[in-house]
Amino acid sequence: MQRSASSRPALLFDLDGTLVDSVYQHVLAWREALETEGFHLSVWRIHRRIGMSGGLFLKALVRELGHSLTDEQAERLQKAHAEGFVQRMDQVRPLPGARELLSTLTAMNVRWAIATSGSDKTAAGALALLAIPKGTPIITRDQVAYAKPNPDLFLAAAAHLGHAPADCFVVGDSVWDLLAARRAGSLGIGLLSGGYGKEELEMAGAYRVYGDPAELLTHLDELGIRAGE
Amino acid sequence: MQRSASSRPALLFDLDGTLVDSVYQHVLAWREALETEGFHLSVWRIHRRIGMSGGLFLKALVRELGHSLTDEQAERLQKAHAEGFVQRMDQVRPLPGARELLSTLTAMNVRWAIATSGSDKTAAGALALLAIPKGTPIITRDQVAYAKPNPDLFLAAAAHLGHAPADCFVVGDSVWDLLAARRAGSLGIGLLSGGYGKEELEMAGAYRVYGDPAELLTHLDELGIRAGE
Q: What's the confidence (pLDDT) of residue A227?
């Protein structure tokens, strides 16, 4: 594919751990759901799976526990996780700089969208915290066949914006975001705010890594995003 | 310092995140304590400080929040964290393989000790879960002037065992363990079970990195620890 002269990039944001400080609530909701079904998995192993598709999470779980799951168990686990997470939403806060970053991009005429492996149900509270403007493309797991690390969520978000994926940066906190970005043909920007280390995000393909949305906001120049274009 | 022929190494273990799955409970107890005092810090920033001295944790907090703390606030925060952690002890489990690793070392006549930045109060529940044999050296923050990343805890543990620090491996899950190991003159072994990434632990000086105590147990050969010596 031939590249044309650079056009103004769009930004495709992950939600949990990237714009809202919700990763640890997801971890605890999964842990509680698993313990209710009699499965004991170390907390760090759950943490490392947050952001990937729930179905793949359960497949990884089967491998790590050496158990198999019935379809009914898998469904009960996903339902219990969603309920446990919604119950913890009152502890979830926007990450520092998240609202300012989004409103600055809008003011700069930089297009952006949100693409999350979460469902409409688990994403609703976080989206409300961010005061997302009407008309913003929000792609959830309910709208695509496969969630991350498949590229579908980011491809759908780019299509909604009318941008080629190569003209988009994906911003995410987990290796699943960065792997999905590579499959989509977008460059990935890593944030440490989901709890992964810098080196881990770089090894998964991050083009740059920042602490949180506040730090990304003050480094937009490093992505070649200029005011007044 | 001239090295003599290799003697049988001793192992100095960190506690939280290394032998018991308690890091996330510490994180949440700190978060709750901080919010009660009106401080809002992203959860990942708290996570990255677990395992270091509580006093240094609060100094880092001052830097990250740009606030200063009164002595009374610092004392209230430390007390609230300890109480919040003890309340969550019922959710804490031994990490996979922790008890088997310790009993195997004992059966192999390999000396070991525990050295934790935690206090006697916060460590008690975790030590009970592990069924530590009587007479095991347990060094807590209450017994030394400075906790990790200062080397004092590991130096005291090595002295209790009558081993030179250079003849000890330090086993820990956080960069603070590995930095303290380097200052003590011991080699550090990293475990992923506290939530740090492999690369992060290697960059902090880990000689080897394993997933959890169960994986370390099946790789004792890589540390040059042989049965029947």
A: 78
The candidate with the shortest Cα–Cα distance to A77, out of A52, A47, A57, A63, is A57
* Closest A-chain CA to B199: A199
Interchain proximity A42–B193, CB inside 8 Å: yes
Report residue A184: phi and psi, to 5°: -80, -15
- CATH of residue A66's domain is 1.10.150.240
Q: State what percent of residues in chain B have pLDDT above 90.
A: 87
Under a CB-based contact definition with an 8 Å cutoff, are residues A166 and A185 in contact? Answer: yes
B205 touches chain A (CB under 8 A): no
Q: Based on the domain organization, do B126 and B180 belong to the same domain?
A: yes
Residue the block writes with tokens 């499965």: A39
My answer on whether A118 and A196 are in the same domain is: yes
Residue B227, pLDDT score: 78
- What sign for the dihedral angle of Cα A55, A59, A60, A65? positive
- The domain total for chain A is 2
By the 8 A CB rule, do B109 and B7 touch?
A: no
B44 and B83 together in one domain: yes
pLDDT number for residue A2: 60
Inter-chain CB proximity B197 and A194 less than 8 Å: no
- Give the pLDDT band of residue B64 (cuts 50, 70, 90): confident
DSSP state of A4: -
CB contact under 8 A, B203 and A200: no
Give pLDDT tens digits for A90-124: 999 999 999 999 999 999 999 999 999 999 999 99
Which tokens sit at B108? 């192999």
Query: Residue A181 belongs to a domain with what CATH number?
Result: 3.40.50.1000
pLDDT digits (tens, 9 = 90+) for B75-100: 999 999 999 999 999 999 999 999 99
Label the pairing between strands B112-115 and A10-13: unpaired
Cα distance from B45 to chain A (closest Cα, Å)? Answer: 8
Q: Does A53 touch chain B (CB under 8 A)?
A: no
- Taking every pair of Cα atoms in chain B, the longest distance, rounded to a whole number of angstroms, is 57
ipTM of predicted complex: 0.92
Same structural domain for residues B219 and B107? Answer: yes
Compute the distance between CA of residue A27 and CA of residue A62 in angstroms, rounded to an integer.
17
Nearest CA in chain B to A197: B197
Please report the pLDDT score of residue B7 as a whole number.
Answer: 75
